[in-house]
Amino acid sequence: MFKVPLEEQETIIIFNEADSTANVYTHSKKWIKHIESGLGVRAWRVQGQARDYEIPKKWLRLPKKPREATPAQKKHLESIRRVKALV
After folding, report:
1. What does DSSP say about strands 45-47 and 50-56: parallel, antiparallel, or unpaired?
2. Which of 27, 38, 31, 22 is nearest to 2 (CA)?
3. Average pLDDT, the chain
4. What's the CA gap between 18 and 40, in Å, rounded?
5. How many CB atoms lie under 10 A from the CB of residue 35?
6. Residue 55 DSSP SS3
7. Which of 50, 24, 20, 49 is nearest to 39 (CA)?
8. Nearest to 45 by CA among 24, 31, 30
9. Measured between alpha carbons, how far is 87 from 75 in angstroms, rounded to an integer?
10. pLDDT band at 37 (very low <50, low <70, confident <90, very high)
11. Which of 2, 20, 46, 72 makes a 20 to 30 Å CA pair with 10?
12. How many Cα atoms within 13 Å fall on the side-chain side of residue 43?
């Protein structure tokens, strides 16, 4: 079997405002496992290692900015780590 270089193992998600579905093309084993096992969707096209899926657009989520812990939260987490280190 032909091995695809890592630079070409891409995941492409395509959707528009008019349709209620999104098309996902991926080589990623992680994405394939999530879509097939987690979402229960089967690929409508398989090309070697790549898969094509059609999923409801409402299943897609916009990325969120990671939260920054406040100084009080950081202090609390540090005290928990110290207690766990003693056990």
Report:
1. antiparallel
2. 27
3. 91
4. 24
5. 20
6. strand
7. 24
8. 24
9. 19
10. very high
11. 20
12. 17
Residue 42: how many CA atoms within 13 Å on its side-chain side? 1
Question: 57: Cβ–Cβ under 8 A, 6 or more apart, which residues?
Answer: 15, 19, 20, 21, 22
User: CA-CA-CA-CA torsion for 33, 38, 40, 45, nearest 10 degrees?
Assistant: -30
Handedness of CA 42, 45, 49, 55 (dihedral sign): negative
**45: helix, strand or coil:** strand
Chain centre distance of CA 6: 17
DSSP state of 2: P
pTM over 0.90: no
Length of the chain: 87
Contact 32, 38 (CB under 8 A): no
